[in-house]
Amino acid sequence: MSDASPGIPSVRQGNLARILRLVHQAGPLSRAALTETTGLNRSTIADLVGELTRLALVREHAPDPSRRVGRPSPLVAGDPDVVAIAAHPEVDALTLAAVGLDRGIPVRERIELDHLLTPAETAELVAERVAAWTTAELAGARIVGIGVAVPGLVRSADGIVRSAPHLEWTDAPLRTLVEEATGLPTSVGNDANLGAIAEHLYGAGRGAWDIVYLNGGASGIGGGLIVGGIAVGGAGGYAGEFGQNRPGIAADSDRRADHGVLEDEVSRARLLEAVGLSNADEPTLADALAASSEAGVLDEVGRQRRILATALANAVNVLNPGVVILGGFLATIAQLDGPALEADVRAQAMAANAETLDIRTALLAEDRLLIGAAEAAFAELIADPLNRVPAAPATRDISI
């Protein structure tokens, strides 16, 4: 007789998932730490770790003997050969990476483009790079699946990209296209929502329960919400579109787009134009802005900072977050004059709502969206390690 009804996880399955989640999210942990954290006894922990080791999902290795007195417990870590592929299509590039179950990133690649990607081309490029990596950097790796972070509205139920206006995608069956091209299970989500999850788990929002995250990229401004420690997607998965709000602009001289939304006014393209660049990745743009003392550049940064502050104050008044995290070019704006941004936000927010507010920049930098996409790809494995073990390389068939 089965130890669980259909659809109800067994106690053992739940405990295996718990251990795998802990070592994936917290990093290497000793058996003693796992015993203390879970409340399970030592023999149960030894049995669970042994099972996960047999499944090649974790590895045990000796700790640094200089860091503890006596005989320390071996450390349990996610197996680095178990990886998820993460992809982020944008208007100017496709960025891809492999993220290990140990949270290492063994390979990362940015493919710059002179045209807008189509959904089909995105799937083909992902398949091409995965096939190439499996004969080189990922030879011997076991791929769990693929996560795609899209700058647009993604229907959570089926991975349909309802609208990615800057990419000119409408009702694109991206999940199906990538799965057919690669033969690998695929998750598709809004890039900012995935970035919020990544920063909550591993970055600037770690330990925070209520977070507003705004991401600034080539396709505009997106956002993600963590409320009570839980990611909020909304009824269809479309929550967090802060870039489509219409902020109040106090000075007419600050307005650049009549009847424009936030991402029309606070814009990466306008910053690139100010420093005389046609295209650049995040570090290059940040360096160019930081190095410039030209009045036009300083004025544009200041203008965008003032409008961003109004948008953030509105979010603070509605949601009362403990932490606001800014990623991408929004982080660059904040870093150029953080005190001014914070002062402008507090001046426009309700005092009680802002009294515990902490405005931070994303700690995961360029990798935040890729790490979030990888988390989506890892989700089923971590929830059910016994039945979602990825196939060995020899059994995987990736078509291009």
Automatic annotation (TrEMBL):
SUPFAM superfamilies named among the record's database cross-references: Actin-like ATPase domain, Winged helix' DNA-binding domain
Protein name from the UniProt record: N-acetylglucosamine repressor
Family: Belongs to the ROK (NagC/XylR) family.
